[in-house]
Amino acid sequence: MVSGLMLKCDDVGAQHSSLCEIITVTVVSGDPHLTTFDGRPFSFQGICWHTLFKDCSSSNPAFEVTTEFEPREDSTFEHVRSRTVSVNVTVGSDFAIINGLDVVTGRTDGHVTAARPIHVLEDDKTVTLSFTSKDTTFTLYWTLKKHSLRVSISGSDYRGHLCGLLGNDDGEPLNDFITPGGAVVHDAAEFGKSWRVEWKKCE
Ligand SMILES: *[C@@H]1O[C@H](CO)[C@@H](O)[C@H](O)[C@H]1NC(C)=O
User: How many A from CA of 90 to the centre of ligand 1?
Assistant: First the structure.
């Protein structure tokens, strides 16, 4: 499991100078052991759809990423273990939904535009989705067979303005368990449950 800050540098050519930026990396593994953007690890065995992270800077979020957890085969009645099976990335009216090996993209308003805000890159092992909002680029790496998801953030406009299972990204791990109502809780299960997407039915 990886979490924390990473320095990412792109060679910008001619003068061999590099453009470096600090990115936050966080991991949601197949078996939902999650690490918030601020590095707080917790285990949450919920099932169904939950908000992983979204824009909380306004009441009309610019983006939202939700994931579906489903029970694993080794679950028992007393102890449900779950894994990540689908991811829904929505930016404005564009969406990309990863379901196992398939990626479906589209627009909720049905319009077709050439410039898509969500970039999708696929190879036989990974699906990489990225989108940019204000100065910030969010990149999700989905490892197909392992059902593992890694999220990286580069930019600062949303620092402290995110919410969801991955916390607020303000640099302080202790206040990461914030419910949709704004309460800071201490119990991982209560926190996790609070981010369940209520209107979404799941099998
Ligand atoms: C994906 O998420 C967006 C925003 O949360 C939601 O409006 C949309 O209905 C979701 N799509 C599906 C297929 O659940």
Answer: 7
